[in-house]
Amino acid sequence: MLKRLERAMGTAPFLLPVTQLVDQGPFEARLFQREEACKASDAALATIKAADVKVSDLDAGERWRISRRLEQVVGQIASNVGLPVWIEVTSTLNDTRSQKKPGPMP
């Protein structure tokens, strides 16, 4: 990431003015997070396919339709209960799910 920033700015990052670092920091962090998320997603998909699980790929239009519907649902929930409560509930659910050990399939 620092190399990419050095190439973009033409100098070492520690010599850049603070405002440029502040401006570029979130952009670089977002790029890094996306790259890591794609790697993790690809690895998880490879693991699933290696277990001979059938995976159906959605076309771009279907993915867009689903994401738009999910945005509406999350917006409705956030407006009904409030966004901070919604974030707290979902993070608690995610924590609980991550602690739960998968049992044998029935």
Description:
The mean pLDDT is 78. The chain is mainly α. It has 4 helices and no strands. Helix 3 packs across helix 4 (83-99). Helix content is 75%, strand content 0%. The chain is extended, with a radius of gyration of 20 Å. The chain folds into 2 domains: 1-55, no CATH class; 57-99, no CATH class.
Keywords:
single chain; 106 residues; 2 domains
Instruction: Assess the beta-strand content as a share of residues.
Output: under 5%
Number of β-strand runs: 0
Residue share in helix: over 70%
Distance between the termini: 46 Å
The helix/strand series, from N terminus to C terminus, equals HHHH
Which whole number gives the mean pLDDT? 78
How much is the radius of gyration in Å?
20 Å
Helix/strand class: mainly alpha
Concise synopsis of the structure shown:
This protein has 106 residues and is mainly α.
What is the element layout, followed by pairings?
Elements: H1 2-9, H2 18-50, H3 60-81, H4 83-99
Helix pairs in contact: 3-4
